[in-house]
Specification:
The chain is mainly alpha-helical. Helices cover about 60% and strands about 5% of the residues.
């Protein structure tokens, strides 16, 4: 079998070279988009009188037949035909005869592949958005259940101030909302139609590019043919948004790993999303969370790989660009699965109340509230900090919590402390007092729960 481009060649391609330059192993997943794009191109060729209606009809019938072959698992790809584009074109010619060879009029694989990836990624971004929404809804449902559960909030992974579990979970919803925006933004630049750019310079044929765009539902066409065939910014933007999204999932997973230890015991994962050990019978491991955390590294790797792939390429198309697909496909697959697994894991997890609350009770988490109380008594914050520090030291010495100190003990440290101090030392009071917009006070959290419910409708 001769290569579709074999006209000027006398010798056949080296076997190893053939496999090396072939992308059919991975780009076959673009088949439906390639056919969709070809049908639209064919219709435009007909509209612009480059193809006769009878010719266009034959080609479209052939393409639809090929689509059915793929869907039935009957299409046999050939490595020798390099990629999905030439595999489909060759099959078309076999099916409908030489008229099939007219489909490639005014087109190059360079604008064809750019179109295919844009069509593919457009769909995938939409479906990732759906999965992200599921994650957000799961987080929201858990947050609603735990509006009254108090946990220690941490800085430096040291207990810092009490917060509600809902408030902690809502922090992730802020991240996911930004992820959704970033993905939507990447979609804007993906949703641009490159066909008609041909190899690099545009085409001699009077192709109505806007018509093709309309047929394929693109709101815009590319404005420069050289950029159109060599631009992969939209892939990098997507992978960058995906990296940030995975970073958020990974941070959440890290907390889940910590929180589901028996030392913390803030939550328990379900059997469905944990695994056992082949040697230690007592184990229930948070593999799902660990794997998502681990896969995040791969996604960063793809982003960096793509940036590096692009940095040295002169205009316009270079075969290097074929290397864009595997990292992109793997990013799409990994993000999609990670989101789905994450939803399942979080939905079936149970959060504890007693352990986190008792940890929030101990550890002097309301020390800042005592300092703030002193400030209300007109003590400068620096001095208030010092007095509170001494109070904590006294507690450590006597084995008491701040709440357990008597007024006499407190007044020995500072005369400024009065009876009403006891309205400032419990974790419930501390949380309630964080009544600033975006704070952890119950009514503020309620506002944010309502806002996020609307946000993820
Ligand atoms: N398989 C190629 C790719 O993925 C398609 C475009 C090939 N174009 C070319 N001039 N060799 O980039």
């Amino acid at each position: 079998m001769k290569q579709p481009w074999g006209g000027r060649f006398k010798e056949s391609t080296d076997e190893l070279m053939l496999r090396f330059s072939s992308s059919i192993f991975f780009d076959k997943r673009l088949y439906a988009y390639d056919i969709e794009g070809s049908i639209a191109h064919c219709k435009t060729l007909q509209k612009c009188k480059i193809l006769k209606p009878t010719e266009a009809k034959k080609i479209i019938t052939g393409l639809n037949k090929i689509l059915k072959e793929f869907e039935a698992g009957k299409f046999r790809t050939k490595v020798k035909l390099e990629d999905i584009h030439m595999n489909i074109e060759k099959r078309l010619i076999d099916l409908v005869g030489p008229v099939g060879g007219k489909l490639h009029t005014g087109r190059s694989r360079n604008d064809q592949v750019a179109l295919d990836i844009r069509l593919y990624l457009r769909d995938e971004i939409e479906s990732i958005q759906q999965s992200l929404k599921q994650v957000a809804k799961t987080v929201l449902a858990q947050a609603k259940k735990h509006a009254n559960t108090l946990i220690p909030g941490y800085t430096h992974l040291q207990r810092a101030q009490p917060v509600s579990l809902a408030h902690h979970l809502l922090a992730y919803l802020e991240m996911f909302a930004r992820d959704r925006e970033r993905l939507a933004d990447a979609l804007k630049r993906t949703n641009v139609m490159p066909l008609g750019s041909a190899a690099l310079a545009g085409t001699n044929f009077p192709i109505d590019r806007h018509h093709t765009a309309k047929l394929l539902g693109f709101p815009e066409v590319t404005h420069n043919s050289m950029d159109a065939v060599s631009d992969r910014d939209f892939i990098i933007e997507f992978c960058s948004a995906a990296s940030i999204l995975m970073m958020h999932l990974s941070r959440f997973c890290e907390e889940i790993v910590i929180w589901s230890t028996s030392e913390f015991a803030f939550m328990e994962l379900s059997d469905a999303f944990t695994t056992g050990s082949s040697i230690m019978p007592q184990k229930k491991n948070p593999d799902a969370a660990e794997l998502i955390r681990g896969k995040t590294g791969r996604i960063y790797g793809h982003l960096l790989g793509l940036l590096t792939l692009m940095k040295g390429q002169p205009l316009a198309y270079n075969k290097d660009l074929q290397e864009d697909k595997e990292p992109l496909f793997d990013t799409v697959d990994t993000v999609q699965t990670s989101l789905q697994i994450f939803s399942g894991m979080l939905k079936t997890a149970t959060f504890a109340k007693t352990k986190p609350e008792s940890l929030a009770q101990s550890g002097f988490l309301t020390a800042t509230d005592l300092a703030d109380y002193l400030v209300l008594q007109n003590v400068p914050f620096r001095d208030a900090h010092e007095i509170t520090g001494k109070t904590v030291a006294h507690c450590i010495l006597t084995g008491k919590t701040l709440e357990e100190l008597t007024l006499a003990e407190l007044q020995k440290i500072s005369k400024k402390i009065k009876e009403d101090v006891f309205g400032y030392l419990s974790i419930e009071q501390s949380v309630k007092r964080k009544n600033v917009y975006g704070g952890t006070a119950p009514n503020q959290v309620k506002t944010q729960l309502a806002r996020q419910t609307k946000n993820w409708k």
